[in-house]
């Protein structure tokens, strides 16, 4: 006689612990940036600081092509010389803010008023 194999039922042990409900953490406050402070003496919009002269010239030409007057400066970052590229000078605050917003929206998101 052939005996058919029956699958064995596996019994799970009941535990006395019940899983704890997840505890929601209190929401962390999100830092909301306040309005940007532009110095009263600002006349330029600095779009970048470049160690490579070729890159600095590309940006100068791009600013001139957008119709902005351009300015340059130099600084050092620890061991290398950097060329500061700026749009301006602007004669009034409204023109400076308009240029700052335009440049940030068109490829220079880290532009700052100087």
What does this structure look like?
The model has no long low-confidence stretch (mean pLDDT 84). A four-stranded antiparallel sheet has the order 2-3-1-4. Strand 2 and strand 3 form a beta hairpin. 23% of the residues lie in helices and 21% in strands. It is an alpha+beta fold and 114 residues long. The chain is elongated, with a radius of gyration of 31 Å.
| Number of strand elements | 4
Instruction: Going across the biggest sheet, name each strand in turn.
Output: 2-3-1-4
In whole angstroms, the N-to-C terminal distance is: 98 Å
Helix content: 10-25%
In sequence order, what are the helices and strands, one letter per element?
A: EHEEHE
Topology:
Elements: E1 45-50, H1 53-65, E2 70-77, E3 80-87, H2 93-105, E4 112-113
Antiparallel strand pairs: 1-3, 1-4, 2-3
